Amino acid sequence: MPKHSNRYKAARSKVDRTKQYMPADAVDLMRDGATAKFDETVEVHLSTGVDPRHADQQVRGVVTLPHGTGRVVRILVFASADGISQAEEAGADYVGAEDLAKRIQDGWLDFDVVLATPDMMRVVGRLGRVLGPRGMMPSPKAGTIVQADELPRVIQETRLGRVEFRVDKTSNVHVPIGKASFESGQILDNFTSVMEAIMTARPSAVKGIYLKRVTLTSTMGPGIRVDVNAASMLKAA
Q1: Strands (E), the chain
Q2: Pairing, β 41-48 against β 224-226
Q3: What are phi and psi of 114, to 5 degrees?
Q4: Which of 70, 72, 27, 57 is nearest to 166 (CA)?
Q5: 93-139 per-position pLDDT tens digit
Q6: Which CATH architecture does the domain made up of 75-158 adopt?
Q7: CATH 1.20.120.430 is held by the domain 6-69+162-232
Q8: What residues does CATH 3.40.50.790 cover in the chain?
Q9: 145-197: per-residue pLDDT in tens?
């Protein structure tokens, strides 16, 4: 059995593991237990009833968090011609084509998000084995294959807190929704935006239970179960 610190045990003692908390109460309890010496990331973990082995039961999308993620995002853009100037003016950290592809093939991975214009997928396609396992491969469903004239908007949204979510092979979805230093209302707003997006992304092929469990946690804190029905009904003001 893993050994937990006294700090973790103190936080866990305040959580009733048999209870499903209302969203606002879960946020307050999570923040109360986020006592590490660094600013912990807040995450929502969802257990779904989809079967990710089937193409018509994929849960995937993007959502812009109203209060951002609280972290600095390094954006890499594959573009050519007009796309290069658009991306540079919008503030992308790295912009290029074959030169960036070679750096990545040589082991360079100092970036967090990859965007690409459609004409550059012939270059990006060669990086599938590197970017794919890291969840960075541009795709239409993730909104990361972008027309050149749309690059400024997508780059701005990514800076402000645009996050991607997708179901993994164990039928779970994991989404960062901010930092423990955020106000409770900010975390709840971000949580609401994510839940709306998750519910909108429900595959039509899923006939049974869609969400089985919703858990809120911080990096070093205990998981707090959120009432599934209440979380599913969250709507932005």
Answers
A1: 41-48, 60-64, 75-78, 94-96, 113-116, 162-166, 172-179, 211-218, 224-226
A2: unpaired
A3: -120, 125
A4: 57
A5: 999 999 999 999 999 999 999 999 999 999 999 999 999 988 899 99
A6: 3-Layer(aba) Sandwich (3.40)
A7: no
A8: 75-158
A9: 999 999 999 999 898 888 889 999 999 999 999 999 999 999 999 999 999 99
